[in-house]
């Protein structure tokens, strides 16, 4: 029992080691779900952030340039609150972003610039917003054959 409690404690501690909340300014937008944020007051290098719980079209995919442009128009050189949740397979920090009291991931999905993430065959937290955007034919949902970025990457590879 003690071993199980110790393992659980270490698991919680390790998860918390990657979680942090901080403020910064968006310095670059790479695509519809990846950007760079310079931490406020630290004078350090900008940090690459992958917005958690969403998947925007790839930059070379249909509607990818529009998603990037919308994110840049909304956040470039703007202050944000970053809530990190770990790292992805590419070493980018996974984070929820907030700008002017609005969750940017939710905004991207609701406006039709991104899909809600799917995890272990379960809909992510923005599934209802994606349904709303689909019904309204908003953004990428104007195309009834919009291809999920995951499927696009499997068929065509990355855009690099």
TrEMBL record:
Keyword Signal: yes
One MF term in the entry's GO annotations: hydrolase activity
Span of domain TNase-like: 20-143
SMART domains linked: SNc
UniProt keyword annotation of Signal present: yes
Annotated keywords: Endonuclease, Hydrolase, Nuclease, Signal
One Pfam match: SNase
Tree of life domain: Bacteria
Segment forming the signal sequence: 1-19
PANTHER family hit by this protein: EBNA2 BINDING PROTEIN P100 (PTHR12302), SERINE_THREONINE-PROTEIN KINASE 31 (PTHR12302:SF3)
The protein's name in its UniProt record: Thermonuclease family protein
